[in-house]
Amino acid sequence: MKYFALLLAVILASAQAKPSQLQSSLDQYLLKGRNFDVEAVSADVTSQCFTLYLPMLNEVAATFSTSYQACISTANAETTNLTAEATKQQTVYQQEVSTLCSAFTACDSDNDTATFFNCYASAAEGDVSVIYDIATNAASSANSLSASLKAIQDTEYQCTNTTESNYVRDTAATYDLLDECLKNGVPTVSTAAPTTTNAAPLSSTSTTLVVDSSSTASKVVAVTTAAAPVVVASTVAAST
User: Fold this and answer.
1) How far apart are CA 139 and CA 130, in angstroms?
2) Reported pTM
3) Cα torsion 29, 26, 170, 157: sign
4) Burial of 40 (0-12, 13-18, 19+ CB in 10 A)
5) CB crowding 196-234: b at 16 or more within 10 Å, else e
6) How far apart are CA 165 and CA 83, in angstroms?
7) Do the Cβ atoms of 235 and 196 come closer than 8 Å?
8) Do the beta carbons of residue 28 and residue 171 sit within 8 Å?
9) pLDDT digit of tens for each residue in the chain (240 aa)?
10) Positive or negative: CA dihedral 181, 186, 192, 193
11) DSSP letters for the chain
């Protein structure tokens, strides 16, 4: 088992992006008892087997690390873009409210009390519909933003979860090939590392806030959110 302990340390060091729970599951798999005596295998065969399959395991780990980081990076980029759009809309609402306040502030310059009252009444009457639109659209924007952020998070989870599953599956398949090599000797036919189609690097969610700016208060008239499918392919085990 000392060979497996050594190999485990190398592979876990290669997959630095792997979450702790995934490491735990791999630990349990890789450290469980094998059904043959490693000590009975000749040093030459052991060396050849590890020379053959260690690079494959490192390749699987490197692929996992790259794919996992791609899932996270894409989700972060989507979130940044969405937040930027929301900030623009926030500025629009702030400008509209500032305009409303200015209409009332202008009334303060009137020294005549009656004129002041009439000015406030006129400003309030003209702004009722605008205030209602702002209240309605701001609430709609908040709901749309929350839904879009959740969609991004869900797609990120699908992407990282698929990447983790592929990593566990491909690592296990490669270990099976290593076991076979240690049992029966180095294969005479060239062997390729098992590969699983990676999850699509999260073309994640495409979220669009469509704003109707025809009125004084911008109106959110449509919100579209489309999540890219995550492709999961079965493992192709290399023949020995």
Assistant:
1) 14
2) 0.63
3) positive
4) exposed
5) bebbbbbebbbbebebeeeeebbbbeebebebbebeeee
6) 31
7) yes
8) no
9) 444 444 444 444 444 445 554 555 555 555 554 555 555 668 888 889 989 999 999 999 999 999 999 999 999 999 999 999 999 999 999 999 998 888 888 888 877 888 889 988 888 887 888 888 999 999 999 999 999 999 999 999 999 999 999 999 999 999 999 888 988 888 876 556 566 655 554 444 444 443 344 343 333 333 333 443 333 333 333 333
10) positive
11) -HHHHHHHHHHHHH-TT--HHHHHHHHHHHHSPPSS-GGGS-HHHHHHHHHHHHHHHHHHHHHHHHHHHHHHHHHHHHHHHHHHHHHHHHHHHHHHHHHHHHHHHGGGG--SHHHHHHHHHHHHHHHHHHHHHHHHHHHHHHHHHHHHHHHHHHHHHHHHHHHHHHHHHHHHHHHHHHHHHHHH-S-SS-----B-PPPP----EEEEEEEE-SSSS-EEEEEEEEEPPPP----BPPP-
Q: For residue 149, which amino acid is it? A: L
Place of tokens 């659209």: 137
For residue 97, give both structure tokens: 């409210």
